[in-house]
Amino acid sequence: MPEFVYPPVIAAARTMFKALDLRFDIAGSEHVPRTGGAVLVSNHIGYLDFVFAGFAARPARRLVRFMAKESVFKHRVSGPLMRAMKHIPVDRAQGEAAFRHALKALKDGEIVGVFPEATISQSFTLKKFKSGAVRMAQQAQVPILPVALWGTQRLWTKGRKRDLRRNHFPITIRIGSPMTADPDEPAATVSDRLRERVQELLEAAQRAYPATPRDADDAWWLPAHLGGTAPPPAHAV
Fold this sequence. Notes:
The protein is globular. The chain has helices at residues 6-20, 49-56, 70-74, 78-84, 95-107, 132-140, 187-208, and strands at 23-27, 38-42, 64-69, 88-90, 111-114, 144-150, 170-175. With 237 residues, it is an alpha/beta fold. The protein is built from seven helices and seven strands; from the N terminus they run H-E-E-H-E-H-H-E-H-E-H-E-E-H. The longest helix has 22 residues, at 187-208. Helix 6 packs across helix 7.
């Protein structure tokens, strides 16, 4: 079926990236399957992460159908766009409908994007992963594609005002090799291995990141264990 909305939205995003002079460092795009279903799993540090995680799949000419909270689909502006791009609404009180929707998309050969932490990590470290992404991959018999984002929190994140006027930010994206989700292995065990893999990619992205805080006031976007002033995991909301 023709995609009338997603490509123009991507073009608009590219224009925004250019206007902001965002500097991208993407490695591992060769791991994105050119055909067939896959579950793309990413860490979650900013409100625009779905844009950047989806951007990671563009070298393979793939579109990602992200699972997002239902309230986004009820917004008068974002709602029509999200539905037209075939993203998947998630009612956290009744998640089974979203699970079935995502499962069908995977079996139809789509890439489904999931943030298994379920919410933005204000410590900018990985929270515990929920097992839904793994269970979907197991039932659909598709691979899991681990992704790590870094730098996206500097544009717009939880607890901070959106600041799209500041530019020249580096955005680092690391894409790992696909993981197999064996249906006979407990989903929680696979989820733990997946989290370890995303952690490795996240640390690689942080090592490669070319920017450091300008001063103490600008250290908010760096995790405490890296010398920043973001709240440590135990104190993050």
